[in-house]
Amino acid sequence: MNLEQKIKEEALRLGFAACGIAEVAPAESEAIYFDTWLANGMHAGMTFMENYRNVRLNPAGLLEGARSIISVALNYYPADLQPQDVPQLAYYAYGRDYHDVIKEKLNELVDYIRREVSINARCFTDSAPILERYWAWKAGLGWIGKNTHLIIPGKGSYFFLGEIVTDLALIPDRPMESMCGKCTRCMEACPTKAIEAPRTLNAGKCISYLTIENRKEIPEKLAPLIGNRIYGCDTCQQVCPWNRFARPTTEESFKMKDELAEMTADKWYALSREQYTRIFKGSAVKRAKYEGLLRNIANYKAINFRKEEEQNTNTYK
C-alpha cells in the first residue's frame, strides 16, 4: 500500500467511517457563498464567524508549509433513542463531547503517520476557523446536501467531521457530485423554514442555533415551532432519504448515559444545577449552559401547557 492507503486503513481501524485527502488551496468556490451568507446576516449572533476570514478560506494559515488536509468522519447515530414524550436532545449530544473523542483519535492517527514518515500536523474538529464540510467534500467523503450537512453515500449524514492539516504532499481524492437531485424534503420539513434555499441556512431561524448558541430569549414567533426540542434539532436529517442507510455507532463514548435515558418530563422541569453538572459532565450540552437549557425547558413546558388547554377545550365543547 502507498502512504495514502495506509492512512485511510488506519483511520478505519481507529473507528472512523470515512477518510479522504484534499490539497491545501484557497476555497475559491466557497468564498462567494460564505461572504454572501455573512453579508445577509444569516450567521445571526455568531459574530465569531466574521473572524479569520482568510484562514477560513485558505487553511494554509493554520500550519506553516501546509500542503494537505486529511478529512475524517465519525458516526454518532444512536442505537437507542429518547422516548418521544420527553424533551428531546439532538442525537449528537447523547454521549461524551465529540471534540474530545475525535481529537484523541486524530492524535492517534498522526502518531501512526509519524511512525511512517516525518510530519508536521495540527488536528481540528469544530475547533478552528476551517470550513469542515467543504474540505470533507474536497476530500471525496461525500457532498454537501441542501440541508447543509455532509452526506456520505450509503451511510447518511449523522457524522462528526475532523481534519489533520499537514505539510505532507499527499495524493488528493476527487470531490463528489451532489446526489440530492430534486429532493427538497429537508427544506419542507424544517419547522421554522430555516433552510431558505438549497445550502442556505438562516441560523437566526434554526432550532439548533436558537436552543444552543443563542443567549437571548427565543423569538416569540419561533418559540411555539420548536416543539419538544430543548437542545438542537435533527429534523432535516431525519427526513433525508440518504439516512435510511444510517447504522448505529459502535463508539461507546457516544452512547446515552443511563441517567439521561431515565429523564422524564417532570425530572426535566425540576432539573437542578447539580443534576445538570453531573448528567452533562464532559458533554456537548454544556455549550448551552444551565441557564440556556432552563430557558429551553420552560419553552417546552409552555408549549405542552397550551396543548393541554386546547385538548381540554375541545373535550368540553
TrEMBL record:
Give the protein's function.
Catalyzes the conversion of epoxyqueuosine (oQ) to queuosine (Q), which is a hypermodified base found in the wobble positions of tRNA(Asp), tRNA(Asn), tRNA(His) and tRNA(Tyr).
Family assignment?
Belongs to the QueG family.
- Principal localisation: cytoplasm
**List of catalytic residues:** 126
Q: Which NCBIfam families match?
A: tRNA epoxyqueuosine(34) reductase QueG
Cofactor: binding comment: Binds 2 [4Fe-4S] clusters per monomer.
Q: Where does cob(II)alamin bind?
A: 56, 126, 147, 150, 161, 208, 233-234
Q: Where does [4Fe-4S] cluster 2 bind?
A: 190, 206, 233, 236
**Residues that bind [4Fe-4S] cluster 1:** 180, 183, 186, 240
Q: Which UniProt keywords apply?
A: 4Fe-4S, Cobalamin, Cobalt, Cytoplasm, Iron, Iron-sulfur, Metal-binding, Oxidoreductase, Queuosine biosynthesis, tRNA processing
Name by which UniProt lists this protein: Epoxyqueuosine reductase
| GO molecular function (one) | 4 iron, 4 sulfur cluster binding
Q: How does it assemble?
A: Monomer.
Kindly state which reaction or reactions the protein catalyses.
Answer: epoxyqueuosine(34) in tRNA + AH2 = queuosine(34) in tRNA + A + H2O
Q: What is its EC number?
A: 1.17.99.6
Keyword check for Glycoprotein: no
Pfam families with a match to the protein in the record: Fer4_16 (PF13484), QueG_DUF1730 (PF08331)
Q: Which GO terms describe its biological process?
A: tRNA queuosine(34) biosynthetic process
Associated pathway: tRNA modification; tRNA-queuosine biosynthesis
Report the GO terms under cellular component: cytoplasm
4Fe-4S ferredoxin-type domain ranges (all copies): 168-200
Domain of life, source organism? Bacteria
Its lineage reads: Bacteria, Pseudomonadati, Bacteroidota, Bacteroidia, Bacteroidales
